[in-house]
Design goal:
Structural class of chain A: mainly beta
Number of strands of chain B: 11
Largest sheet of chain A: 6 strands, mixed
Oligomer: heterodimer
Order of helices and strands of chain B: EEEEEEEEEEE
Structural class of chain B: mainly beta
Strand content of chain B: over 45%
Distance between the termini of chain B: 36 Å
Number of helices of chain B: 0
Largest sheet of chain B: 7 strands, mixed
Radius of gyration of chain A: 13 Å
Number of helices of chain A: 0
Distance between the termini of chain A: 37 Å
């Protein structure tokens, strides 16, 4: 079953702008992770935020987590054409380390 | 280089012909998992393994088998492939623990005709 749901499904911006993607989930989690996938390729782990954390940064990425609203956001600042990809949130909510993925946001950064 | 290696990258086969997709990781990860990715359905877990000789079903295990005889290898076996198993398959591995992300392979695009 799908746990995370990303919003929007697709986002198109100009190079240099910021991109914000949101993720909502249904059940309690141990952590929430964001991944990037270039077309047809393997997913690449971007950042992990634990359930007791509210905000985390990594380079141009900023992730927030609101467990009371069961939601997270991924902000990519000063976007580049190379950031064009699909972005997925994934939740780890059980004892078997299973990640449940959303359907992703397709980000297009126009040069 | 730390990586998860899947083979083959592309495969076209006929209904009913047994096939194996191999997955190998060089990071000494305990946890390995198979996912399939389909348009509109996202990524769904097929099987996972917490360690050698320990495997369990994910969300969509029907029609698939796995084995974990060595820590580094986790092959996915389709005993009698059917067209509804046409998909993009990913192997992933991770250290066991609550603060580790997955490392994914590059994917295997399988077409069953």
């Amino acid at each position: 079953s799908q746990q995370g749901e990303e919003d929007p499904q697709a986002l198109s911006i100009q190079e240099g702008e910021n991109a914000t993607m949101n993720c909502s989930y249904k059940t309690s989690i141990n952590n929430l992770q964001w991944y990037r996938q270039n077309s047809g390729r393997g997913l690449v782990h971007l950042i992990l935020i634990r359930s007791n954390e509210r905000e985390k940064h990594s380079g141009r990425l900023r992730v927030t987590l609101d467990t009371s609203k069961k939601s997270s956001s991924l902000l990519i600042t000063a976007s580049r054409a190379a950031d064009t990809a699909s972005y997925f949130c994934a939740t780890d909510g059980g004892s078997n380390y299973k990640l449940t993925f959303g359907k992703g946001t397709l980000l297009t950064v126009n040069p | 280089e730390a990586q998860v290696t899947q083979n083959p990258r592309y495969l076209i086969t006929v209904t009913g012909k047994k096939l194996t997709v191999t997955c190998s990781q060089n990071m000494n990860h305990e946890y390995m998992s198979w996912y399939r990715q389909d348009p509109g359905l996202g990524l769904r877990q097929i099987y996972y393994s917490m360690n050698v000789e320990v495997t369990d079903k994910g969300d969509v295990p029907e029609g698939y088998k796995v084995s974990r005889k060595e820590k580094r290898n986790f092959p996915l076996i389709l005993e009698s492939p059917s067209p509804n198993q046409t998909s993009l398959y990913f192997c992933a591995s991770s250290l066991v623990g609550k603060t580790h992300g997955y490392t994914f392979g590059s994917g295997t695009r399988l077409t069953v005709v």
